[in-house]
Design brief:
237 residues
């Protein structure tokens, strides 16, 4: 998917699962959302044109931080699977898998949290931001699993690929399903907020479960191919 699709869908998804604490824990709420939006485009750092280049000073700084972690991740998995070194560094290679993003982000987030702790500025919002970043990157993979190309969630340990039929590359007939997915999360967030404010407090674990159930709906709705290249679409694989 395109960067704007990842950002909008992930932001609305994060809003949905965190909305029960929006008023009671606003700092935690905002910290998670900021982390999720940054994480939403993180896996595309493996692309030929990184989303962290030419996007302003803050984004360029983030790119400088992430680049050594990315290169280290390529090196580690290159040792594990030397026969796949070239494939690992390609777009939707190792950085588009759960093992890859856990290692790559862990290299950045663990030292960052320890450094902030040592200098005495660590608090729970830093941890929530870190978890939001991981969650955003993970949801990026779930979003890409709805596209024609799909993703291998546990690559390189398995080649099994989740893929749908959403086509975000065609300029002739752009697929509008990503915007509809984002709208779905907006409507659900409004409904949850109304119920939470007027009727009863909703436990956050219920909205988390709801958020992942919504991904199941997204994946199912993505199964109809929209002008995917011949051979790139295999139903429900």
């Amino acid at each position: 998917m395109k960067g704007r699709d990842h950002s909008s869908i992930t932001l609305m998804w994060a809003f949905l699962i965190m909305c029960p604490i929006m008023l009671t824990e606003p700092i935690i709420f905002v910290s998670f959302l900021i982390g999720a939006v940054i994480g939403a485009i993180f896996p595309d750092i493996d692309g030929g044109v990184s989303p962290y280049e030419n996007k302003g000073e803050i984004m360029q700084f983030a790119g400088l931080i992430f680049k050594p972690a990315k290169l280290f991740t390529f090196w580690v998995f290159g040792l594990i699977c030397p026969e796949r070194k070239k494939e690992l560094v390609q777009h939707r290679g190792i950085i588009h898998s759960i093992p890859g993003i856990v290692l790559c982000l862990g290299i950045v987030l663990v030292p960052l949290n320890l450094l902030i702790l040592i200098i005495g500025y660590w608090n729970v919002s830093v941890l929530i931001f870190s978890l939001g970043l991981l969650a955003g990157a993970f949801f990026h993979l779930l979003e890409d699993s709805c596209t024609c190309s799909g993703v291998r969630l546990f690559y390189p340990f398995t080649e099994y690929k989740l893929r749908g039929g959403v086509n975000t590359l065609s300029t002739k007939r752009e697929d509008d399903r990503p915007s509809r997915f984002a709208s779905m999360f907006v409507l659900l967030s409004v409904a949850v907020l109304v119920i939470d404010l007027l009727m009863t407090d909703i436990p956050i674990f219920l909205t988390i479960v709801l958020g992942f159930l919504c991904w199941g709906v997204m994946y199912r709705l993505s199964q109809k191919p929209n002008n995917c290249k011949q051979g790139s679409f295999i139903y429900n694989r």
